[in-house]
């Protein structure tokens, strides 16, 4: 069912298709806003649930969005009594901010044209994110800015030292900006030479780990994902890197058919519900992907093969998972730990003392767990 929004303009009721990557329902009340709108008024209306369809200058809309953001962030969440409560308060504050800022809307007209003064040409970025143009569509300005930012990432790419090349993320696919997990896979000891012909990369995303495995000498790598966007992104990157003859991208599923000498999985690290498309790369509801990997590993490994689990312990520091639960899950799946390599995060948030989750982030360790079948 196609959702629509309705508003009145020059005493005429108009409507447009509604789209939200976060599955936000269409706003019930929409009014037209332009350069005369004050930030305090916009913020108050957005908090009350009214959406503002912008028809003024594009750069003024961006300034208004920043002014609304500052007003939201004045009410920072109080620290929790423990890390778990702090996490939930932080998530609640982020959800509120997304709701309020998401009520400043723009209209993409025929062919994704953004007909605002001083507006950039957004058509190619929207085609990459949404596919072929449809009828006029209303989206939030903050979503459009995300689409434009993703377009720039896709054009420029992210340099991956382990590959000596760039990976080009697509919209809605988690970018490999946190390179420590890539380095773990690039440097971990490989299985015995007789057991390194085939590899699986589960939840491949951009395809970066599949490419690392191919560069490390595996003759055949199968990369899987459940996201159509990730599958298209991985195929694009495999082609760019000249690895299409050795890396097959398959899905949507977790495990492909057959067995492999090495099976690598870098699941989302936080067992909580994502609230946006991009957050699927960080949040794994109830640890579903982690459990799926562990319990399917033994039946997909060749004799003497290994499974590599790349996982941050941030969830442990936040009180969302314990080390005992992880080790118990490994044992229950008929697996044993061969070895473990650790690394510390290098991203700026790890040292940002203003981050409400700073204590947990500062203690975070990312590990590569080398797993083998018991017996």
Automatic annotation (TrEMBL):
Alphabetized PANTHER family for the sequence: HEMK METHYLTRANSFERASE (PTHR18895), MTRF1L RELEASE FACTOR GLUTAMINE METHYLTRANSFERASE (PTHR18895:SF74)
PROSITE patterns named among the record's database cross-references: N6_MTASE (PS00092)
Protein name: Class I SAM-dependent methyltransferase
GO BP, sorted A to Z: methylation
Molecular function via GO: methyltransferase activity
Keywords per UniProt: Methyltransferase, Transferase
Pfam family, one: MTS
CDD domains associated with the record: AdoMet_MTases (cd02440)
Alphabetized InterPro entries for the sequence: DNA_methylase_N6_adenine_CS (IPR002052), N5-glutamine_MTase (IPR050320), SAM-dependent_MTases_sf (IPR029063), Small_mtfrase_dom (IPR007848)
Location of the Methyltransferase small domain: 167-310
Superkingdom of the organism of origin: Bacteria
